[in-house]
Amino acid sequence: MELSRYQPSVEEPDRKLSIFIVDNQPLYRQAVRQALDGDVAVVGESSLRADVWSTIEELVPDIALVDVGLPFFSGFSVARQVARRCPKVAVVMISASPDDDQLFQAIKSGAVAFLSKDVSADELAGTLRRVGQGQYPINDSLLNRPNTAEKILRLFHSLSLMGNDVNALVTPLSPRETEVLKHIAEGYSNKRIAFTLGVTEQTIKNYIASIMRKLNANDRTHAVVLAMRRGWLDIGDISDGLENMAVSHRD
Asked: Which fold does the domain 3-151 belong to in CATH?
């Protein structure tokens, strides 16, 4: 199985967006590297290995560009592993023959964007830049595929009627992320959360970035509301500082 790592350039004064490419075709990985040359820093590449998440976790790129992995769709498993184990890394999925079912699986796997391999170099670079800015281009893909949107709504409805856990549709928060979100709901600032948990403020910012991505939230308040709707936060467990959240939701 193929795996390569690249040393990031130290000549650029401004840090480039970094990506890791996961695809079984060496020629396609090479084409992506050449297409993105000058726009982003490719820090490594690999075939679709089950343990590739460990290398991604070590390198911590901004984005993992992951192929769907036809015909066995192993890329979705890789995407889920990266989303769960490497929360600071955004997953962008690509497919040679994208369809509604693959988009649906990409959403369930925690991907933030879903692209066809037919995209131009400019379109690919543009999508990666949007992801690097914290956007979720996969929402645009969903709006352009009303059948998939309807399918997701039907699944949510059926799970609700059956009493099943709708959390299966999204990447769950880790226990520490839930703890951080609880403190956010109590009106704590990043600095106070860091002090309470005995970690650095940057670590808290990383947790919050992961929470926002997993919940597809617009801001801290929105994240708390979404978590409460999904039953991840119990308002009874949150102290009287809840009303202060709106004041301190941006540090």
From this structure: Rossmann fold (3.40.50)
Amino acid at 31: A
Q: In this predicted structure, what is the pLDDT of residue 251?
A: 44
Taking the C-alpha atoms of residue 91 and residue 198, their distance in angstroms, rounded to an integer, is 29
Q: Where in the chain is the domain with CATH 1.10.10.10?
A: 172-248
Let me know if domain 172-248 sits in CATH 1.10.10.10: yes
Of 111-120, 177-186, 237-246, the one with minimum mean pLDDT is 237-246
Q: If DSSP codes are grouped into helix, strand and coil, which group holds residue 7?
A: coil
Range(s) within the chain of domains with CATH label 3.40.50.2300: 3-151
Q: What's the pTM?
A: 0.61
Chain centre to alpha carbon of residue 230: 18
Q: Give the largest CA-CA distance in the chain.
A: 57
- The lowest-confidence range among 120-129, 130-139, 197-206 is 130-139
CA separation for the pair 147, 150 (Å, rounded): 5
DSSP 135-163: --THHHHHHT-HHHHHHHHHHHHHHHHHT
Tokens (6 digits) for 105: 């699986």
Confidence of residue 92 (pLDDT cuts 50, 70, 90): very high
Give the relative orientation of helices 201-215 and 220-229 as an angle to the nearest 10 degrees. Answer: 50
Contacts 24+ apart (CB under 8 A), 224-232: 224/181, 224/184, 224/185, 227/173, 227/178, 227/181, 230/166, 230/167, 230/170, 231/167, 232/167, 232/172, 232/173, 232/178, 232/181
